[in-house]
Amino acid sequence: MKKIQVFDPALCCSTGVCGVDVDQALINFSADLDWAKQNGASIERFNLAQQPMAFADNPTVKTFLELSGQEALPLILLDGATVLTGRYPSRAELARWADITLAEAEPKTSKGCCSGKSCC
Amino acid sequence: MLFLEQPPRFLFFTGKGGVGKTSIACATAITLAHCGKRVLLVSTDPASNVGQVFGITIGNQITSITAVERLFALEIDPQAAAEVYRERIVGPVRGKLPESIVKSIEEQLSGACTTEIAAFDEFTSLLTYSTLNSGYDHIIFDTAPTGHTIRLLQLPGAWSNFIEEGKGDASCLGPLSGLVKQRAQYKEAVEALADPLRTRLVLVSRAQEATLREVARTCKELAAIGISQQYLVINGILPGSEAEQDVLGKAIVNREQAALAAMPDILKSLPCDYVALKPFNLVGLDALHLLFAKNIPQLMPEVDQPISIDAPNLSALVDEIAANSHGLIMFMGKGGVGKTTLAAAVALELANRGLPTHLTTTDPAAHLTDTLTGAVKNLAVSRIDPDGETERYREQVLKTKGTQLDSEGLALLKEDLRSPCTEEIAVFQAFSRVIREADKQFVVVDTAPTGHTLLLLDATGAYHREVSRQAGDNGLLELTPMMQLQDPKQTRVLLVTLAETTPVLEALNLQEDLRRAGIEPWAWIINNSVAAAEPHSPLLKQRAYNELSEIDAVAHHHATRYAVVPLLMEEPVGRECLSELIHA
Asked: Coil, strand, or helix at residue B164?
């Protein structure tokens, strides 16, 4: 199975320091991510503020950061290759990468956007 | 002293900076050691002078105080503890990731919550490890964790995702993925804190209305999480005898007595001790020994020369501000130093000079703004209610983010929204609507966000700008509040402090924090100075004398420009009194 890795910008905390404008894109993505996981996708998520080593240890991510800066995050890798930068993927994109057929997989209510490795 | 009667194993002293927690904790430790108990004194005061008090170097290890039998001491530096945590996360990526990124991660780990939890982490083992604390009958702490920290540590949601896995959701605990101890140990420490048989909490205050109000808030908050055995100490009361010798002394005595009479009800129900202001510095064993004494022997080293200082007053600062026709003037400082009063005085003076001015305050009592509203030409007054703004902000976040959370996650989010940072952000958002007016007139604000908050807000601002740019929305490319605050032509930040060790140190920390955000405080104001009031009574003269070295340090080391405002006979409310502040 293909592995999806999401490298988030430094999203700090659920207090909303990072959510001065609560970001609907992030909320949607968290729900989509949960959906994809429930349909068997292999997805890892890393937050720059809390797991910086994951960024430093991956040459692709490290080079991306050096060239584009953290403002250009998020960065999404598929089996180690860059597939998307600067925005979060849609549910359709996730499905395509993870070989999930959209029609089969009925969207389910997500358990929580913050149960992942990053805050929302 | 009531709080010294049948003391339990652990004694915590809490109160805002400058009320004398460390002195009282030291005197308590000496008293108990003299009674034959083995005592460990733990200081987490960043300005810890415990070593100086006993004339030895202590530092971050338990040190025997040879001058007092059975007494041991330990100094924990919370800043250093937080630094260790930061380094544990940031150290491995330094040099591997771009410098700007390393900096932004460091900033996330530089908040007040990080420092507080780091300090708590340091002394957790003293509350639980029997091998470490079994040698002592009493352990005395000159500080206590806030209700917010304790509640966070009590929440299962704070642990399940984050700390045990070492990653996951962030919260005020979030940055501390370096928390080294096990959940069980924190749980035990929190239980020890809430157990009246083991722990007594002593609230330390001064006989001042604002300080008492703040202490009442702390009291309520700690009682709500089960810390019910609380005592109150009112420190530094000016004895009635001073009123006979000095008009200023008389005014202070009256004011203090009025504040005590109007003490919030929740405090009136606590066992309360009163400690009189002493005519000597609380350094050295003899002095500390006398802190709780009823009758002080006549050993006071009287200050014989009259005290007077040659320092600029507020009107010199206003002259410089008034040279422009507009701008943002922000007052910054810890609670209770008089920011609202000074902001009102400066705004009134600008208006009196014919300059259109908008004063906006967080004054909880509103009596000050009431006396000015509509009364003065060129002056508009508005008020922001911090509690109301924070509540609105909380509800908005809960409505938008809370719906997707499970019950543990929701409890954690709710607690995060009770953090001091949240209030600061909510208030700043409310102010940011007003500060846009500062390009046409003067806007005077009695509070300012810390550099830490600005940096965090700006980081997200930058991120959101990027997102909207890519989405093709160019509407957001205006000046951010951060950029307005960094420009010395547009914004002047005035740091307010008192001429005492801890308040000056706290102001210095605020200054460092602002500098990190690229903001240079424009001036310092030393408020309520006894020295500037040129007192006559021996006690007040001694206090005035003690202020001199602090004023000197501000004037020559900390500030680029400064002003000293004397302690006035009456609480400065109303137009005449406020004008008096400017020209005094």
From this structure: coil
Question: How big is the CA angle at B100 (ends B97 and B102), to the nearest 5 degrees?
Answer: 50
For residues B435 and B428, what is the distance between their CA atoms, to the nearest angstrom? Answer: 10
Q: How many whole angstroms from its chain centre is CA B18?
A: 9
Strand order in the sheet with A81-85: A42-47, A3-8, A75-78, A81-85
In a shared domain, residues B18 and B139? yes
What is the rounded CA–CA span in Å between residue B178 and residue A50?
10
d(CA A91, CA A83): 14
> What are the tokens at B333?
């400082």
Q: Is the pTM of this model over 0.90?
A: no
Rounded CA separation B259/B244 (Å): 20
Q: Residues B266, B322: one domain? A: no
B53-75 tens-digit pLDDT: 787 888 888 999 988 999 999 99
Q: Which two tokens stand for residue B400?
A: 């938008």
CB contact under 8 A, B97 and A56: yes
pLDDT single digits (tens) B315-372: 999 999 999 889 999 999 988 888 999 999 999 999 999 999 999 998 776 666 677 7
Pick from B14-23, B244-253, B319-328, B472-481 the range whose average pLDDT is largest. B319-328
Residue B146 sits in which domain range? 2-289
The shortest C-alpha distance from A47 to chain B (Å) reads 9
Which string of DSSP letters, residue by residue, matches B420-477? HHHHHHHHHHHHHHHHGGGGTSEEEES----HHHHHHHHHHHHHHHHHHHHTT--TT-
Quick check: is B133 in a domain?
A: yes
Q: Which residues of A touch B89 (CB under 8 A)?
A: 50, 52
Inter-chain CB proximity A27 and B98 less than 8 Å: no
Assess whether B321 and B270 both reside in one domain: no
Give domain status of residue B303, yes or no: no
Task: Confirm or reject contact between A67 and chain B (CB < 8 A).
Answer: no
Question: What does the pLDDT look like over B401-441, one tens digit per residue?
Answer: 667 667 777 777 788 788 777 788 888 888 877 888 888 89
The letter for the amino acid at B230 is: Q
**What's the domain count of chain B?**
2
Give the distance from residue B180's alpha carbon to the nearest chain A alpha carbon, in angstroms.
16
CB contact under 8 A, B170 and A69: no
Which among B218-232, B296-310, B561-575 has the top mean pLDDT? B218-232
B285 and B320 together in one domain:
no
Cβ A56–B467 below 8 Å, yes or no? no
Residues B254, B337 within the same domain: no
DSSP per-residue string spanning B273-286: EEEEPPSS-S-SHH
Instruction: Answer yes or no: is B467 within a domain.
Output: yes
Q: Judge if B377 and B509 occupy the same domain.
A: yes
B566: CATH? 3.40.50.300
ipTM for the whole complex:
0.70
- What CA–CA distances, in Å, run from A100 to A97, A104, A106, B187, B505? 8, 8, 11, 44, 60
Clarify whether residues B218 and B340 are in a common domain: no
Q: How many CB atoms lie within 10 A of CB B134?
A: 7
Q: Which H or E element spans position B189?
A: helix B183-194
Both B341 and B435 in one domain: the answer is yes
